[in-house]
Amino acid sequence: MHNVLPVIALVGRPNVGKSTLFNRLTRTRDALVADQPGVTRDRHYGFAVHDGRRYIVIDTGGIGQDDEDIDTQAFAQTQAALEEADVVLLVTDSRQGLLAGDQIIAEQLRRLERPVHVVVNKSEGQVGVSATAEFHALALGEPWAISATHGDRINALLARVFETLPEPRADMSAYPPDAIRLALLGRPNAGKSTLVNRLVGETRMLTQDSPGTTRDAVASEFVFDDKPYVIVDTAGVRRRARIDDAVEKLSVVKAMQAAEAAQVVILMLDGASGLSVQDVRLLSLAVERGRAAVIAVNKWDGLSAKAREKLHAELVERIGAFNYLPLLFISALHGSGLRELIDAIRASHRAAFAELNTSQLSRELEQAVEAHAPPAIHGRRIKLRYAHQGGRNPPTIVIHGNQTQRLSDEYKRYLMRRFREKFNLFGTPIQLAFKNSDNPYVGNARARRR
Q: Taking phi first (over 0 means left), then psi (-120 to 50 degrees means alpha), and beta for anything else, what does residue 106 get?
């Protein structure tokens, strides 16, 4: 069984620091941050971890802007986040103090049947109750004084938040332990449910020629060449600006939760529509979580030879950073290309769980450095001594040396390409970890010489 990731939503007025807090929690710069009200009008989603437990964070647009139309959109986004959340953080501003907008939002939150915490941001340098005293009037429990910019008291806040989180919800279906777990992501009407029906061999999923038929994540079991699989079909994910239906708004979180529980993610594209920004975002979320993946272009049979050639060229060009992922062309309706898809899934799964030999890793590292040494920094040469495997799913390679923190991103990508090609690690992201240390074999060599 696999726990469903909990969801924490950040809500509040404009310019109180929600996006800064989002970036602090997710350790990214995905949310736009600027010193002016109402920069975030849409929802942003990210993975985060606290004390070994993973969760999803949603950043919302601020409520209370002067533009009535924008404010309505922001309010709708906040409502959607509240529907998705297991716990809500009402972010306020210590410098601005308690304002009417905070009271209005708090009134809504008091009606929720889930935990709510008041977060008093921008409280750096303030101690005791001075930063939070007036926020007790919101009647949502003890306010927490933090600084999202400096990270002050964030861990204490999260410890309290996780104390109030509901017990992790689990997928209650028991599946074979050796089954490969798949998550099927994509925009509405890409043909995901049709693919599931084809693989399962029965009309398990409702299918029709209209976007957004699947409303929730549904797991199905099937066997292919005597190998068991579990596939989760998620609701089609639209570009958020076009989402109006309240139920459909849950789809992004469902997709992230499905990717979390999966071993291999299938991103399905509609051959007639091509690759969209939303497709790339979905793929990025899966790869960010370290998931193996394949890209399946559906409805390929409905395109002319010229259209196929053009689409193939466009996809190869636009995939860019994901060019290590298999690109398949299928017809879920007619079943063509499914064996190739399953073969690619199995290859990506093998790569994600590959066991890498230490001596072979170190030898490949040595050859990579001989072919292209890292540039010297301030006249000092960076030395990379040896490598070993640090984890699987995704494969993690730990490299020891000196001044490794000075390696450029370009050189790290070079090493990643070398390892990928040498050990056939296509279909899965690779993580490199660097440690500054002495070569452990040096001492042994000296001892043998004595």
A: alpha
SS3 of residue 21 by DSSP: helix
Provide the residue-wise pLDDT of the chain in tens; the chain has 450 residues: 456 788 999 999 888 999 899 999 988 765 434 333 333 345 688 889 998 888 989 888 666 543 334 355 556 657 767 777 889 999 999 989 999 889 988 988 888 888 999 999 999 877 656 778 899 999 999 999 999 999 999 999 999 999 887 766 555 355 788 899 999 998 888 888 899 989 988 544 444 443 433 334 567 889 999 999 999 887 655 544 444 443 344 467 878 888 888 999 999 999 888 888 888 888 888 898 899 999 999 998 888 888 888 888 888 888 888 999 999 999 999 999 999 999 999 999 999 999 999 999 999 999 999 999 998 877 788 899 999 999 999 999 999 999 898 899 999 999 999 999 999 999 999 999 999 975 555 445 444 444
Altogether, the residues listed in the chain come to a count of 450
For residue 318, report the phi and psi dihedrals to the nearest 5 degrees. -85, -20
For residue 220, what are its two tokens?
């199905």
3-state secondary structure of 238: coil
Please report, for the domain that includes residue 311, its CATH number.
Answer: 3.40.50.300
Query: Does residue 144 sit in the same domain as residue 93?
Result: yes
- pLDDT at position 413: 94
CB burial of 139-167 (b: ≥16 within 10 Å; e: otherwise) equals ebeebbbbbbeeebbbeebbeebeeebee
- Rounded Cα distance, 268 and 289, in Å: 18
Overall number of domains in the chain: 3
Strand-pairing partners, residue 431, are 396
pTM here is 0.75
Q: How far apart are CA 309 and CA 299, in angstroms?
A: 14
53 CA to centre of own chain: 14
Cβ atoms 416, 423 nearer than 8 A: no
Q: Are 249 and 241 in contact, with CB atoms under 8 Å apart?
A: no
Would you state the structure tokens that stand for residue 362, as one six-digit string? 């170190």
pLDDT in tens, 246-268: 334 446 787 888 888 899 999 99
Question: Does residue 237 sit in the same domain as residue 366?
Answer: no
Domain match, 158 and 224 both: no
Tokens standing for residue 89: 């953080």
Q: For residues 330 and 336, is the Cβ–Cβ distance under 8 A? A: yes
Q: Based on the domain organization, do 233 and 343 belong to the same domain? A: yes
Return d(Cα 401, Cα 441) in angstroms, integer.
13
Domain interval for residue 387 = 358-449
Beta bridge partners, 98, equal none
**Which of 311, 332, 350 represents a domain boundary (last residue)?**
350
In a domain, 172, yes or no: no
**One domain for residues 288 and 394:** no
